[in-house]
UniProtKB/TrEMBL annotation:
Compartments, as annotated in UniProt: Cell membrane
Species in which this protein is naturally found: Hemibagrus wyckioides
SUPFAM superfamilies named among the record's database cross-references: Family A G protein-coupled receptor-like
Role played: Receptor for MSH (alpha, beta and gamma) and ACTH. The activity of this receptor is mediated by G proteins which activate adenylate cyclase.
Protein name, UniProt field: Melanocyte-stimulating hormone receptor
Length: 325
């Protein structure tokens, strides 16, 4: 696999071998960027590297603020916000990898940095792990948050005994360990089309799982709420549904931003030489922009949907501004 912007980068469509398999580790020409030359002969839509850098920096700052707010505010120390914090970390991995790689490209293109092929290979491997881990962990945490909201709504009286802090921490550790391990294996077997097939399958399975949970929640939540007549429980039910709606928005944004990219992977497997597929491949740089935009939009959703988080974010920004002044 290649990372975000070096020679068609991470998960992109590199030189096709005679047997039509995908080679993600082609040799790199250090003084030519992926936006200037497409190794498949397909003309890519040109997007300035400065735009990637700007979006990456904004996304990075936003996600750092969200993580800091959740850590600072004890009212946000609950399993749901722990999972949201991890989702922000996943988005931050995309931002960090994008910023680091874009800076390397800009410095190299302007002759300010000399990078050997070996150094570049190591950089690619590190960024590949970061981005692949981000994809897998984001999908996993979206599923985890959906399950958490499901338990909150349908097992409200037992929620705190089911989803304890210890279990939440264990789930987080398992997700990250699995994501990093899987990413490393994907890099080892990067030349196998089975890697792409596994990612596409995981994407589809997690979306179906999450969609089924949300469908069940929204169909039966109204009926379930009638069974809980106490005022405090009704309030808890309303809060839980608000959390479910927030995560539904997050899931929708994730599908919109990552969907074209995964369709790109599907087309690589099914019709790599079809003219219509090649036309779709030419928009790959736009798919990268959408992925970065997902990392940028998610923190805005957190802040918009959570008054407590929004309040803490304002305090952090104001304190930072006063410190600078």
């Amino acid at each position: 696999m290649k990372s975000f912007m070096w020679t068609n980068l991470y998960f992109s469509m590199n030189t096709m071998k005679p047997n039509q398999s995908i080679d993600y580790m082609d040799n790199v020409t250090l003084n030519v960027s992926a936006n200037d030359v497409n190794m498949t002969g397909i003309t890519q839509i040109m997007i300035p590297q400065e735009l990637f850098l700007m979006l990456g920096l904004i996304s990075l700052v936003e996600n750092i603020l969200v993580i800091a707010a959740i850590i600072k505010n004890r009212n946000l120390h609950s399993p749901m916000y722990y999972f949201i914090c991890c989702l922000a970390v996943s988005d931050m991995l995309v931002s960090v990898s994008n910023v680091v790689e874009t800076v390397f490209m800009l410095l190299t293109d302007h002759g300010l940095l000399s990078v050997t092929a070996r150094m570049l290979r190591h950089l690619d491997n590190v960024i590949d792990i970061m981005i692949c881990s981000s994809v897998l962990s984001s999908l996993s945490f979206l599923c985890t948050i959906a399950a958490d909201r499901y338990i909150t709504i349908f097992y409200a009286l037992r929620y705190h005994s089911i989803m304890t802090t210890q279990r939440a921490v264990a789930i987080i550790a398992i997700v990250w360990l699995t994501s990093i391990t899987s990413s490393s294996l994907f890099i080892i077997y990067h030349t196998d089309n089975a890697v792409i097939a596994c990612l596409v399958t995981f994407f589809g399975v997690t979306l179906v799982f999450t969609a089924v949970l949300y469908l069940h929640m929204f169909i039966l939540a109204h009926v379930h709420s009638k069974r809980i007549m106490a005022l405090d429980k009704n309030s808890r039910q309303a809060t839980s549904m608000k959390g479910a709606i927030t995560l539904t928005i997050l899931l929708g944004v994730f599908i919109i931003c990552w969907g074209p990219f995964f369709l790109h992977l599907i087309l690589i497997l099914t019709c790599p030489t079809n003219p219509y597929c090649k036309c779709y491949f030419s928009h790959f740089n736009l798919f990268l922009i959408l992925i970065i935009c997902n990392s940028l939009i998610d923190p805005l959703i957190y802040a918009y949907r959570s008054q407590e988080l929004r309040k803490t974010l304002k305090e952090i920004v104001l304190c930072s501004w006063c410190f600078v002044m």
